[in-house]
Specification:
It contains 4 helices and no strands. It is mostly helical. The longest helix is centred in the middle third of the chain and has 24 residues.
Length: 105
């Protein structure tokens, strides 16, 4: 038995949009809203404890690393070991960035 109520406020455009979506699939509004809410992937939580400056520094570092790799690849001055080291550093930076986005840092 359903006994809990979720109350939200919508402006006219939002209301019309939701009603239109429910009508498109021929469902009552309450059933459509329930099904839609329960089957959607929730948004990822925002990262906590991460400053804008930290993200900007990570982005700059990644950008510089990509520039180094591009120069090394085009000029053929990097050894294979150096290219692997740059690639490994890039992968580590991407992993750190994913942690920022996922909120686990």
């Amino acid at each position: 038995m359903r006994q809990n109520i979720l109350k939200i406020y919508l402006d006219d455009d939002e209301w019309n949009h939701v009603v239109g979506m429910a009508e498109t699939v021929a469902m009552p509004l309450s059933g459509f809203a329930r099904t839609f809410l329960l089957t959607q992937k929730p948004p990822r939580p925002r990262a906590t404890g991460v400053t804008v400056e930290a993200v900007a520094a990570l982005n700059r570092t990644g950008s510089i690393l990509n520039q180094i790799a591009k120069i090394g690849n085009s000029s053929k001055t990097f050894s294979a070991a150096e290219v692997r080291a740059v690639a490994a550093a890039r992968e580590r930076l991407l992993a750190i960035a994913e942690q920022f986005e996922g909120g686990s840092i």
